[in-house]
Amino acid sequence: MSTVGWGIAGCGWVARDHALPGLLAVDGARVVALHDLDPAALDRMPVEGARRTTDLAGFLATPGLDAVYVAVPNAGHRPLVEAAAAAGTAVLCEKPLAADVDDAQALVDACARAGVLLGAAYDQRWHPAHVRLRELVPELGTVTAVRIVYCCWLPGDWTPDGRPHDNWRVDRARAGGGAAIDLAPHGLDLVGTLLGEDVTTLSALLQTRVHDYGVDDGALLTGATPSGVLVGLHVAFNTPDALPRRRLEVVGTRGMAVALDTMGQTAGGSLTLYRPDPVDVPFADTPPFEAQFAAFTDAVAGRGRAGTAWPYDPARDLALHRLLLTALSESAPSESAPSGGTP
Ligand SMILES: NC(=O)c1ccc[n+]([C@@H]2O[C@H](COP(=O)([O-])OP(=O)(O)OC[C@H]3O[C@@H](n4cnc5c(N)ncnc54)[C@H](O)[C@@H]3O)[C@@H](O)[C@H]2O)c1
């Protein structure tokens, strides 16, 4: 297979503003089809030559379709992944895998049964600062802790682009929860990606402190890896975007690495290594979505950039999803009422 034909199912914010530009920059990838239930969303996708359809069956029957990127709200992942798997295409599914554990298990099973490649779209694995940080971890000595802050401001009427938006992120039925299920999966994935071992114990405290909606607007999660690295995650929809709100620290006995403003969809931010004097660490500027789509495209084509196929096992992504949702379901919500407030 020389060129991989991609379809995008769900043409909203992340697909239009981040995935599509990433995909269009990849050698050997071609966008052949777009699917969304909303014709206006299809119209807003800046790509030529692709079939645009609100009909899922017609989308999946597009000639030359090899891989489908699923970017609909979380509860919609399962039916789309199952349909794509049944049609025999590889699937790159947005995070979180699903809105609950049963759906996540079902979509992983569907791909395994169909024998198609399934990837979870944890784009931050591919952020160039995180790729560099992974190389630096051995220089930190014995890693004792990873501390992550990944917060933003997301009120009930939030919109990504100023246009009226269906804010499904605060609808438990479609999102599966609030800030924690939306933001924590990135941090949990990063811990495992950076350290080479995943968090296996996890607990959570949830709050609905500021916004008047029926899901958590903040959470603190604490966990540990099998070798004993402690992990702390603060995720929130109640931190004004103007404040410092994205920080990733890996702490070791010989040094510490601090990534600022790297967690997100673009290649920006900074990376500093303290041993103990601070040294700025340069990194590439490849957008994380571009790197992600390049790797998945190569895996689908069977060529494997740098000798690797898709290096992430869906069973591992499913285990992390189960761990997170179990911790969230066992957490006690804060008793206090939302206070309201504006940034
Ligand atoms: N990796 C990241 O950094 C990142 C960032 C943002 C969003 N996401 C994930 O991407 C997914 C989409 O998020 P978004 O912010 O782009 O949402 P969005 O609301 O902006 O877009 C979702 C689109 O899906 C369409 N849609 C809804 N149900 C559908 C269905 N059953 N079939 C076809 N189309 C359907 C909607 O019309 C809309 O155009 C979510 O799972 C979210 O968690 C990931």
UniProtKB/TrEMBL annotation:
Domain Gfo/Idh/MocA-like oxidoreductase N-terminal residues, every copy: 5-120
Keywords: Oxidoreductase
A Pfam family per the record: GFO_IDH_MocA_C3
Any one GO molecular function term: oxidoreductase activity
Keyword Oxidoreductase: yes
Residue intervals of the GFO/IDH/MocA-like oxidoreductase domain: 134-257
UniProt name for this protein: Predicted dehydrogenase
Organism: Geodermatophilus saharensis
